[in-house]
Amino acid sequence: MPMVTAAQQRAQAKLEYDAFLASCPSRQLLERISDKWVSLILAALGGDGPHPGKDRADRPRSMRYSELSRRLAGVSQKMLTQTLRTLERDGLLTRTVTPTVPVTVTYELTDLGGSLHDLMRGVKVWAETHMDEVLANREKYDARTT
Amino acid sequence: MPMVTAAQQRAQAKLEYDAFLASCPSRQLLERISDKWVSLILAALGGDGPHPGKDRADRPRSMRYSELSRRLAGVSQKMLTQTLRTLERDGLLTRTVTPTVPVTVTYELTDLGGSLHDLMRGVKVWAETHMDEVLANREKYDARTT
DNA sequence: ACCGGTAACTCTCCAACGGGAAGTACGCAC
DNA sequence: GTGCGTACTTCCCGTTGGAGAGTTACCGGT
């Protein structure tokens, strides 16, 4: 009989979540969401368009597996499935199977996933808007070191 | 009715970065910053304490190499050096060598790096605050699938 | 009855990336 | 000379991710 239940362990750890500690669960969560495919999946399901300033249609969408794999150009099926599974397990999105033929599987952000998406959208927009500056910095750096 | 040629569309698309396209530079930038070590390095140099609500001392810090490697528990020297180099190349932080003995190397966020840190801090805080919820979701998921 | 088509995976192989440990360069103190 | 401390750098090897073929399950056509 275990003396300490999982719930008790959580209650204990709750006092001190610190992502800088390698053993902290929040560190693993940070590693999980700091993933290129995670950020793109969130952006896709969050309804981010390519050009953030223009379309205001950034409400959560429900997307099919095949739709996602087309949207995230370059993702392998393995990684897409794997990443979606872990996000589902963590409660960031829901997976719905509709028994049509062939079977239809749709994914949708939960409220929890949506709250993370609100943050991650900013990061994606940052990358797109500061691209020029970063490219200029790289040129300067490469010129300096050659 | 304005006529838009294919050439004009291409020229237009060239100006706009879209992280969903595999070939877009901003996609590579998003992949670079969606990295566990990048987010932790930014948090460390941005002055994030373990408990975000408590200490207000979240102004940019200058940190030594050894200080960073102690702070980011579990990082290998190789990855720390490599990650710092690319962040320096992209202009997110500066590397300063002081010819003391032994040599002292300090790293500090640039304004550009600081602007990204403002966004990433939210993500780290999100991970720490929603940890309980995610752990509960995992238990439910595992119970459902076993 | 059989074949083909489609969606969503799943499996298998292999190349690339990341971690660990050991080695390097520098200058000074002894 | 030998040793030491900082900040790397190099080598080896285990793990991860990508490419692409294979799988399942169903149905509609012939």
Number of helical regions of chain A? 7
Percent in strands of chain A: 5-15%
H/E element string of chain A? HHHEHHEEHH
- Total individual domains of chain A: 1
In CATH, the homologous superfamily of chain A goes by the name: Winged helix-like DNA-binding domain superfamily/Winged helix DNA-binding domain
Label the structural class of chain A: mainly alpha
Walk me through this protein's architecture:
The structure is a homodimer of 146-residue chains. By secondary structure, chain A is mainly α. Chain A has a single domain, classed as Arc Repressor Mutant, subunit A, CATH 1.10.10. Helices cover 55% and strands 10% of the residues of chain A. Chain A contains seven helices and three strands. The first copy, chain A, has a three-stranded antiparallel sheet. In chain A, strand 2 and strand 3 form a beta hairpin. In chain A, helix 3 packs across helix 6. Chain A is globular. The first copy, chain A, starts with 5 loop residues before the first helix and ends with a helix. At the A-B interface, helix 1, helix 2, helix 3, helix 6 and helix 7 of A face helix 2, helix 3, helix 6 and helix 7 of B. Chain B binds a DNA duplex (30 and 30 nucleotides) through helix 4 and helix 5.
Relevant terms:
homodimer; 146 residues; mainly alpha; Arc Repressor Mutant, subunit A; 3-stranded antiparallel sheet; globular; DNA-binding
